[in-house]
Structure formats: structure tokens, C-alpha cells
Amino acid sequence: MATIFRKIWDRHVVAERDDGTCLLYVDRHLIHEVTSPQAFEALRLAGRKVRRPLSLLAVPDHNVPTSPDRLEHIEDPDSRKQIETLRENARSAGITLFDIDDVRQGIVHIIGPENGLILPGITAVCGDSHTATLGAFGAIAFGIGTSEVEHVLATQAIWQKRPREMRIEVAGDLGFGVTAKDVILAVIAKIGAAGGTGYAIEFAGDGIRRMSMEGRMTVCNMTIEAGARFGLVAPDGTTLSYLEGRPAAPGGAQWESATADWRTLRSDASSRFDREETIDASRVDPQVTWGTSPEDALPVTGVVPDPSDHPDPAVRARRERALRYMDLAPGTRLTDIPVDKVFIGSCTNARIEDLRLAAGVARGRKVADGVTALVVPGSGLVKRQAEREGIDRIFTEAGFQWRLPGCSMCLGMNPDRLKPGERCASTSNRNFEGRQGPGGRTHLMSPMMAAAAAVTGRITDVREVLKG
Amino acid sequence: MIEKFIALKAVAIPLDRSNVDTDAIIPARFLKTIQRTGLGKGLFHAWRYDENGTEVPGFPLNRSACRKGKILVAGDNFGCGSSREHAVWALMDYGIRCVIAPSFSDIFYANGLKNGLLPVRLASREVRGLIALLESSPGSEIAVDLPAQTVTGPDGAAHPFDIGSFPKECLLKGLDEIALTIGHEQDIARYEREWKAKAPWLFLDL
Ligand code: SF4
User: Fold this and answer.
1) Residues of chain B with pLDDT > 70: what percent?
2) In a domain? residue B63
3) Does residue A468 have a pLDDT over 90?
4) Do the Cβ atoms of A443 and A298 come closer than 8 Å?
């Protein structure tokens, strides 16, 4: 009578303390240049070694430039230093590195799955909160801090308390112009930015079952925006067909025994959850955020809320601050908000399916005057695939910039960022103050919605554009 | 290594905001370092300074009575967002050793404990009360007693708080958690042998 989370958890317990904290074995560990240098340094100072280097994959993503000259030249000396440090740490410990000249380089949460490193039933960690993305394969995957990165490097294990469990049923089919991003934004708006704190969330229901792996990854990616460190989906036929034949996935006889095992990884019908929520996907409209927390999402048909309508003074104060920061007045129709920049990218929405959907909107249209629009594929493999399909040309002909892979304008650690006061339609996951550059204003939405904003110059209901 | 935390009596800074995220605590451009030190200058940078680098007068950390503050009292969901431990390092580099809030993000909470920055959860009502006291008499002190698990406000009222027994012990002794885990090396090696036999695909290399 166990949940899938419980089944995977129990198989990974190496030891348990009296207070119920478990030492979990870690199957896969991914690292990037920003949160790992201090871990390697501490390891060296303590005279310790990386215990199982081949369980790791290293990639520079957060501060790599996305311009074509990046192989010859990275202007920012601090970024350069972090990338070189990652390279050196990987080399001396014997860790596989997808360097910036490798076609497999890309955002850490995108390249693991792409190469078949993330399998059902495993545990995976990374010094990055969006590691929950990988739970889409039916894995326990979670973000950790740098001290924990050091701990996993040294021991291949991590101490964790079992979280509470929530099940979110996504019932019904997604409507025209509605995608996984809209579903997860609607979920976050419903349960709140801290609604999942202390929980692992299993996503289930027809809406999830019919989603592609790309869509499921988008959903799990943003569970952290609802406060939950873990999001997961039970593996099924979609998972298996995605994995089969990928470089690190098992083949031959091992594939047979692996898939037999994976079929057992699902929550038993009678399992009990600490909390259950249902969302009717057929009633979800394309979503847009108006404020500075991912919970500030509304249907695109809505208006900017009036903070004084909320009964809780703390929420009122937060919303008033958000409106001041976003320079928006209550009652403004969301579709009357103009944008300066459009960013299609990030670990939430830079997989091939995302680019296909956005290109479907951009095809035969032009980026509006005065708008700068960037498309940043999530990895070199996504970029190559898109170029094979001619997606790059659809974008460039419409006036979008076609960049090299990386985190880019999701967090503005590289040269791609907003200027103070600029407003951006973004497919990333965080609309915090200054997230895309100091003083920048972010509206989160799906890739189709972002493409629609690019061609009209304002937040737009993509369904109107497509009906045309 | 965890820095020891036993007890602290210090000026407390009220930060009456909820959802204080890690990008607000330490903006991304300050993360381009390979060290843990020196991050204090970036702490709350966009809130502490205006575009010209001048201090924003009303911001709590900039009030003269709060300059020596070592305790921060804030709203719900403190530290939400990214896993960046830099948020904890920035607070500690600035001098903060304890954050009191009604709730924390899970990752920030864990990161705090790993470094010796004590996150204390109190009920919303209690936190609101403390913030009101600190706002009305800026520069007042709060006392935090980890062995007794209490926070004592400027008015002398004591508020008990919960903390796990193991993190508490780690903080009190300043333990090296990795050394403790290495003590389980035999269990870890046994686990690997067992699963290599049962599910060899878990150990495939790229
Ligand atoms: S794309 Fe954005 S959210 Fe994702 S890993 Fe990079 S910086 Fe983090």
C-alpha cells in the first residue's frame, strides 16, 4: 500500500537514525559551475576524495554566454573563472564534463534526461532547486545546497527526513492553446508559493498521462515554485519510449529487466496521501503572472488584481509591493500590458517540444517593432534537432534571435539580461524582483504565449493569434 | 563544517515582508565567486541600495539602530526560490546568525543548519508581535537559547520553538557531518554491492 515516492525512498535507505532521518544512497549527481566550486574546495581542504566520480555529470550552464563567439572569448573574468574551475575540478576528479564546445552541453536539468542518465526509480541530486524536473521520470530528484553537494561528493549519500506527500490529480484534457506550463502555473496559483513546503508532490491523472515527457518535465520543474522540493510522475509507456536507445539508458537484456522493475513503480490504489488536490485541466486558460511571485498567475483573460480586495494584511502588503515594482495598476487588463523583451528558454521551457510550439506561433509572423526576442535552446542537442526541423529559420525569419544553449536570461548571470524598468514575457520559472536583471520586470507564461507576445508587442491570448 | 551555535543575545532587525526569495537575499550577479566569503556586501543589494549605490534610508538594515543586528525577523516563506547556499553565506558574512520567521523554504532551512545559521520557526502571531516590538523600539535585542529552545523578545516574553534533535546536536557541537557519514562507509559499500547485483543498470556510465 505504498506510494511510488515511498517505494523509491525505501529502496535507497542505507541507514536510519532514531529520529527517522534516513541516509539515502544517491544514484546520480549533476553539477554546474555556480554551486559546486566551494564544495570541491572544502573537500580538498579536508583531504577527501570524490567517492564515485562516474555517478556524476558536470556542465557549465548558468553563466555561459549564448553568443556564437563564446568559444574564443568570455568577456566576464568571474564567469570565466567559474567555468575554468568546473573544468579543473571535473578533470582532476575524473568526472564527465560536457564542456562549452560539446554539442551535449546545455542546461543541467535538460541534458541529464536527454542522455538517458535519469531513469525511473533512481535518486538524483544537483545543487540547484529545479532538479525536481527529473522527477518526471518517476525518480526522487531534488535540489540541494553546496554543503550537501560536498557531502554527496564525499559519501555518495545524503541525510534526509521523509517529506509529507501530496497528490495532485490533473483531470481532463488540456484545451486549445493550453500547455503543461499553464497547468503548473494554475497549480501554483491554487496552492500558493509555500503550499508545497515540506511535501513531495506526485502528479497524476489523465492530463498528466497524456502529456509528453517534455510537458511532464515542465510540470515537475516548477514544483519548487510551489515550495515542494520533489515533484514526480509514475513511469509509463511514454517514459519508456522516451528512454529507449538513449546513450546511458540500459539496452538489451538489461532493458528487459529494468522495464519489468519500472512497471512496479506506481502508487498502489489504496495509498494514502497527506494532502490531495484536483485541478480540471479542461478549465485552465493560458496563464500569465502579473506580480513578483510565481503564485501571482492568472488566466490571460483576467485583470491585475486590487490588493485591497484581499482579507489578509500580509498578502495585501506583498501585493502592493509587487504592483509598485511591476509598475501596474489594479484593474489593468493583462492583454493591455506591453513588453520590451521576450525570452523563450530555461530549464522549464527550452526542450524541443517547447520550441516547436513557439515556432508554430512565430511562423509567418514578425516580431513587433521595438521588441527584442531571444530563443535560447536548452542544449546543443535541442538546438541541433531544431535546426534539422527548420525551426531556427522560422524564428530568425520572424525576427527572433537564435542563440547558443545556456540559462541565459532566466537569471541574467551571463550578458543576457533586462535593463532596469524593462518588461519581459518569459518562459522561465521565476518572476522575483530583479531575477532577469536589476529592476527588470518578468511576466511568466508558456512558450506559445511568449511567441504571441513577441509578435504583438504586448501580453496576448495566444488563442486569438492562432484563430487569427 | 558547521559553525557552533549555542546562544545569542543581539539586536534584531525586523523585515516585515513575506516570500523573501533568494534572489532578493543575494542577487545572481554576486554568485560569480568560487569562495564562501565576502558575500555580505551583496546581501539584499537591490533593497539596501538605489541604482547609484546609495543606501536606501528606510530599509531596515540601513537604520542606525539596526547596524549591529545579528538576528533577522521576517515574514512567511523566507528563503524561497533557489538552492543557492550563497544566501546563507551572505547573511552570515554580514553578521546574521539567526533568522526568525513563521516558515522557511525547505532548502534554505537545511542550508542554514549546515552552516550554523539558526532558522527559528515561530507562529505568525508571535512573529508579528516581535516585529511590532522591534518597529516601535528600534535596536532592541532578542535572546535565542538553543539548548532551551526559546526565543525571548524585547518584552521578556519567551517563545519556545521546535528543532530536530540531530540538527540541534550538530549546531551545539559544531559537528562535521561528512565525518559522521563516513562512519557508515560499510553500509554504503554493502548497499552498492547488493544493488549492482539486483539492478546493474543503476551503475551504467555515460
Ligand atoms: S534555466 Fe534558470 S532556473 Fe533553470 S537551472 Fe538555469 S538559472 Fe536555474
Assistant:
1) 100
2) yes
3) no
4) no
pLDDT tens column, A358-411: 999 999 999 999 999 999 999 999 999 999 999 999 999 999 999 999 999 999
Full-model pTM: 0.97
Query: Can you give the pLDDT at residue A446?
Result: 98
Are A362 and A326 in contact, with CB atoms under 8 Å apart? no
Query: Quick check: ipTM above 0.85?
Result: yes
**Whole-Å CA distances, A292 to A275, B18, B120, B177:** 27, 12, 25, 36
Does residue B138 sit in the same domain as residue B194? Answer: no
Cell numbers 537569471 label which residue?
A: A411
CB of residue A29 inside a 6 A radius of ligand 1: no
In chain A, residues with a C-beta closer than 8 Å to the C-beta of B84 are: 34-35, 145
The number of distinct structural domains making up chain B is: 2
The pLDDT of residue A166 is above 90: yes
- Local structure of residue A162 (DSSP, 8 states): P
Report the CATH number that the domain containing residue B53 is assigned in CATH.
3.20.19.10
Contact A164, A275 (CB under 8 A): yes
Tell which residue, B117, B39, B115, has the closest CA to residue B78. Answer: B117
Among A residues 197-256, those touching chain B with beta carbons less than 8 Å apart: 197-198, 224, 227, 229, 247-250, 254-255
| Contact (Cβ atoms closer than 8 angstroms) between residue A106 and residue A384 | no
Residues B149, B190 within the same domain: no
Question: Are B199 and B123 contained in the same domain?
Answer: no
What contacts A362, CB < 8 A, 6 or more positions away?
A394, A395, A398, A400, A451, A454, A455
Cα end-to-end distance, chain A, whole Å: 51
Residues A361, A451: contact at Cβ < 8 Å?
yes
Tell whether B43 is covered by a domain. yes
Does residue B1 lie in a domain region? no
Q: Clarify whether residues B61 and B22 are in a common domain.
A: yes
Alpha carbon nearest to ligand 1 atom 4, residue: A347
Sheet holding A28-31, edge to edge: A96-97, A56-58, A28-31, A123-126, A140-143
Q: Tell me: do B77 and B154 sit in the same domain.
A: yes
Which residue's alpha carbon is at the smallest distance from atom 2 of ligand 1? A410
* Residues of chain B above pLDDT 90, percent: 96
Helix (H) or strand (E) holding B132: helix B124-136
Model confidence pLDDT, tens digit, residues A369-380 = 999 999 999 999
DSSP category for residue A161: P
- Do B45 and B103 lie in one domain? The reply is yes
Nearest-atom index, ligand 1, CA of A346: 1
Range of the domain at B30: 7-175
Q: Residue B151 above 80 pLDDT?
A: yes
List chain A residues with CB under 8 Å of B115: 147
Clarify whether residues B190 and B98 are in a common domain. no
Query: For residue A344, what is its C-alpha cell?
Result: 523563450
| Torsion sign over Cα A112, A379, A287, A312 | positive
Over the stretch A21-77, which tens digit does the pLDDT of each residue have? 999 999 999 999 999 999 999 999 999 999 999 999 999 999 999 999 998 889 999
In a domain, B2, yes or no: no
Same domain, B48 and B133: yes
